[in-house]
Amino acid sequence: AVTLPIALTDGKWHHVCVTWSTRDGVWEAYQDGVKKGSGQNLSAWHPITPGGIFILGQEQDTMGGRYDITQSFLGELSDLQFWSRVLTANEIHTQATCGGHLVGDVMSWSEEQVELHGGLTELPFEPCH
Which residues, by range, are in coiled-coil regions (predicted)? Predict the structure, then answer.
């Protein structure tokens, strides 16, 4: 596990990108297109296997359960993307500054079936328009 060196407490929209390579465990964290931190040996050679469930906005105390309402994310999320490769620093900056819009080849927010639980609401959002 890694604690990301990112702060999102000003009530404004931010672009966040985290890269990770299973080959060597190298990770980088970007906020608004600027690299904020990096490290290595994060689960090196432990690829993410298919068939799992990705839970967003809720910390789980056991695999797939024991959710605590006090540990829930409170805020808004949009345009989550996953790629099968590490994006370059230039690609990340272009995404963050609305110079282009890459669509994830593993998962794309606009294409995936998202289940909402706990009174969540889906709203339209165009970050670059």
Answer: none
